[in-house]
Amino acid sequence: MEFVTEQGKQPHHEECSTLILPALSIGNVGQLAVDLLVSSMKAERIGYLDDPFVLPCVGNDAYGPIPDGDLALPLEAYELSSSCLNLLQQRSPVVKGRTVEFAKNLANFAAASGKEHVVLLSSLDFGKWQKIDMSSGLQIHYLSSINPDGRDDHCEQLGWKRLQEYNPAQRCWKYLSTLAEGNTMLESNLPFEDELEDEDYYPSLPFAAIFSCLKAKGLKVTCLLCYCSEGDNIQDAFQLAEAACRLLGLNPCTFPGKCLLSQGLYQIYSFTLSAELTQSTEILSAFSGILVASVFSQEFFLLHFHSADHVGLEGHYHWLLQLIVLVSLLSALAVMFQPTSLSAVLVLSVSVVFQGCWFMNMGFMLWSPQFVPRGCIMQSAESGGDSMHGAVTCFSHEADMRARALANLQFSWILSGIMIFTGFTCLKFAGKRTPRPPSIEYEQLQIRGSDVPITMDSFKQADP
């Protein structure tokens, strides 16, 4: 395997001791996760790898919004010097029957470039999952080279489960270890490809060969795995990429939309607090009104793009939230131009309260397993972290439509409850209002800018 440095770049292999790379498997989740890490962390491409066992391919720029002719090749190396991290993206499959040779070349390259820890991202066929436990949603499974049985205390603390099917004494796992250590003697009792049993499925995958070869080189290897099926695996890629960030102590807020929403909410709360402390009587006029409108416009803008990667039931909840924020924005603009309008102020107040209630409702319905609608499950829930990204997946179209209908009912119920409370409060205060008597006092006539007193020099009696 030969490394070719990109023109004008200076790699720092010795300083970057950690390597993240995918292993091709069902759904290409590992490759999607690496793409997500590269694009969100703005990693710099430093070169390419050339290996005879990887099928050649070429494509246009993989990350630019507009293709500019920057070619993408089968094996690309990226660097994030601020985190002492290298990433390797594989865009082409390995030649059939040459997986072990490719894994050996990859292990030799990792060892020669000074890598100490390799994080391997891959996926497993959901149909092969024997002991399914969906009590906490879909989980991350791991396999580590620290202990002979594949266990890692740090991964256990993060709430992940060791790959139960890993057995170093099993014939195929043992055979991989033998090949990785340089022993080319074939065992006569190994099955043919069409004779593989269920226990032979996992060691037959590319991640197993790469894991065994890296382990044979004395490197620390952590495989992060998730079960999935063919189809839209974007959420699985987010789950796997976030798991890699948690493992390495990186900030998952670099993902698009992770921390954007909190910025707009922080501005709203800060503005409200300052208004209460200063006791301003013209809070929504002039500059203050512009500030409120800008806060809601930013919130709507961030929510719109934050919701771009949310599909299904969660996407529907986010769409309804955008409607509430849009009403808040329009009412804030109305109050800015008509500060004495009771209707505009009332709509603004109701919409802000509605936002808070809807946020709490989303928290219960999307991130609490006991409140997930029937026929749906949480797609991502991890108990070991302080930040959690969740989504709900429904098993059938009928279950999805039923869950969306429930969300619409909750929207109507919450809005009705707020309107009933608002109407009752208005009637209560209106009943206690004391009518103002008509004023009989004289008032000085004024002209805007300066007071002009009105003098009367003489009186003239009118003839009847």
Question: How does this model look, in words?
Answer:
Keywords: Chaperone, Membrane, Transmembrane, Transmembrane helix. It is a multi-pass membrane protein. The protein is α/β, with parallel strands linked by helices. It has two domains: 2-254, PAC-like subunit (Rossmann fold); 260-429, no CATH class. 42% of the residues lie in helices and 12% in strands. It has eleven helices and eleven strands. It has helices spanning 29-41, 99-112, 153-157, 171-180, 206-216, 234-248, 260-278, 286-306, 312-337, 342-367, 397-431, and strands at 2-5, 18-22, 44-50, 75-80, 85-90, 117-125, 141-144, 161-162, 220-228, 376-378, 392-394. The strands form two sheets. A nine-stranded mixed sheet has the order 1-3-4-5-2-6-9-7-8, sandwiched between helices. The protein has a two-stranded antiparallel ribbon with strand order 10-11. Strand 4 and strand 5 (85-90) form a beta hairpin.
